[in-house]
Amino acid sequence: MDRLLAMEAFVRTVDTGSMSRAAAQLGIANASVTTLIRKLEAHLGVTLLHRSTRYVRPTEEGAAYYERCRCILEQVTEAEAALTREHGLRGVLRVETPIAVGHLILSPALAEFSRRHPNLRVITSLNNEVDNLVKRGVDVAIRMEAVESGDLVARLVYRARYALCASPGFLADHGTPEHPRAIDPKRCLGFSGSPSGDLRLWHFWRGEERHEITPEGNLFFNSTDALMQAAAHGAGLIYVLDVLAERYCRRGELVRLLPEWETDAQTFYAVYLRMGFTPPKVRAFVDFLAGHFAAPADPAPVPIRAR
């Protein structure tokens, strides 16, 4: 029996609540995880897990052994990190990001990250679902709102602001609004990202003056990328995050309007499992994100118990 692999199979089973998910993370067959844990139990002479068709959870002895195993595995990771510092990052890093962020920011940035770490394979999943990171084997997730249950670290990597934008062609045809009161709601493209169809409202304020706009145009999307593409083709005004619109503005396809007005904010976090020792590949990627997003000067990791 490979005792270290058996320990890792046991720890991942407890973390994910499933032998099949532990097997998927380890890249081995479900039956192999079952066999490893049974052999570990036989070696120790105790039952480590309560098993049923609905759940897997540690026994009292299993819970105590789990904590010791985690410490041992973290020490192994730290020992491997010493070699990593000499020979570079290796292995697989699994990343998850919202679709628009993946398309417009992360995908182009990963070209640079891969050049820095040519022996590290990065597997990126683009989706807008907020689900359990550990169960799906995700090492780092970019999140904009609440994250799932569990002890996590959320590191602030960017605080964005919404920006009012339109194409040069649209502004030539319809004029450039100089004040929120001049914005015609019927020329505003809407974003609806929830199943209920709730629209994102547009907010502007300066001092004590505040304005709220409900888009009433004839185009609505649940994709920020699609929204910006439609606006770039002259379909109307949009209200999107500045970090997402930056590339369109840099190319001259969109123009940012009313920059002197305050707008709603959105914070981006890199989220990963809280451990005694952060794997070097995770630390390197999160540091890279913070630099690429141009985060505040001191984006210190903040332990949280996520909702």
Describe the structure in brief.
The chain has 307 residues and is an alpha+beta fold.
Provide the descriptors you would attach to this structure in a database record.
single chain; 307 residues; alpha+beta; Arc Repressor Mutant, subunit A; D-Maltodextrin-Binding Protein, domain 2; 2 domains; 8-stranded mixed β-sheet; two-stranded antiparallel sheet
Number of helices: 10
CATH architecture annotation of the largest domain: 3-Layer(aba) Sandwich
Low-confidence stretches: 295-307
What amount of the residues lies in strands? Answer: 15-25%
- Which oligomeric form is depicted? single chain
One letter per element, helices H and strands E, the order comes to HHHEEHEHEHEEHEEEEHEHEEHE
Mean pLDDT rating: 84
Structural class: alpha+beta
Biggest sheet details? 8 strands, mixed
Radius of gyration: 24 Å
> Can you identify the CATH class of the largest domain?
Alpha Beta
Instruction: Please count the beta strands (DSSP E, at least 2 residues each).
Output: 14
The shape is elongated
